[in-house]
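To close the section, here is one more complete example, presented without commentary so you can practise reading it yourself. The ligand is L-homoserine.
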Amino acid sequence: MEVKLSLFGFGNVGRAVARVLLEKETFFKERYSLSFKVVSIADTSGTVWLPESIDLREALTVKETFGKLSAWTNDYEVYNFTPKEAVQEIDADIVIDVTNDKNAYGWHLTALRDGKAVVTSNKPPLAFHYAELMEEANKRSLPYLFEATVMAGTPIITLLRHGLRGDTVERIEAVLNATTTFILSEMEKGLDFDDALKEAQKLGIAERDPSGDILGIDAGYKATILHCLAFEPITFDMASVKGIVEVTPGEIERAKAKGKTIRLVATVEEGRIVVGPKEIPKNSPLAVESHENAAVIKTDLLGELVIKGAGAGLKETASGVVSDIVMAALMMR
Ligand code: HSE
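Output:
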C-alpha cells in the first residue's frame, strides 16, 4: 500500500524522520507492505510540494547546505502556504507535525476534518486541546497519534492508551525532561549550569528555546498529556510547575552526601499535576542519567510498573514519530 505523507517541520527531528523513512524503505515494504511517499515538506521558509513524491535525499542535502527549503528552486515549486492552507491544498493520507508551532491544534483539526490522519511530536496542541482533538479524531475514526510527545520513542503513550485496560491508574511519578537531567547530572560532576545547558543544546536534547526545558514547562506539557491518558482530559493551566533554575550547586552536593540525586520530577494524580526538583535515592528507577526518562506507574491491579528509556534525541524521537506513521497507515488500510 502506498501512503502519502505531508511533513510539517524540517528541523532536526523532521530530518531525522526523513532519514529513517529513506534508510528503512525496504524494511517498511517487507515488514508491513507499506511504501511511504513524502508529497510535501514545509519549513519556516516555505512548502515544497510534489504530488509524485519528493526526493528525500535531495531535500536533506538542500536543507543541510542552504539551511532552508526555499533555496530549492531548480526542480520544485516552493509555496508560501500557511500550515492550514497547506493541509487543505495538499492531498495526503497522513499529516506529520514535527514543528514547535504552539497554535498547531487549529491545523490539526483542519487535517482531521479533511479526513487526514495526524501524527505529532508537538506538545502544546495536546497539552491545551486534548479533548477537542481526540473528539474530532474519534468522531471520524481517524488516527491521531502522539507517541513522540512524551519520552521520545519510549512507548509510554502506547502503554497507557492500549495496555492496562482493566487497571485504574492511581499515580504516575516520572522524570520526563532530558535537558534538566543532563544539566543536573553534569552539575553533580562539577560543571556549571550554563556550560551544561550549552552541552545539552549541542547534543540536540534541549528545545530550540531551552527556557521551556529549564523552567519545567516541557515536563509540565508532558505530565498534562499523561494525565489526559491515565485519568481524564485536563489542560496545562492546571499544572503546578517549578523548574531547575533555582537549584544550587550546594543543594546538589548536599543531596549527593545523602546518597541522593536531584531530578525534575512530575507527579500525576487524578486532577493534580506537580512538577519540580526533588531529591531521589540513587537506587530509585527515577535516578536516570544523560538523556533517559523514566516513569513509575502505579495501578490498582498491577501495582508498580516502571518504563524507562531515551526521552530525547533525534533518532530516538524519530523512533516515536515513525512508529506512529506506520500505525496510522495500518489503521487506515
Ligand atoms: N527538550 C526535551 C527534553 C526533548 O529535554 O526532554 C523533547 O521532548
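Once you have examined the C-alpha cells, check your reading against these statements. The chain has a mean pLDDT of 95. The chain has two domains: 2-152+314-331, 160-310.
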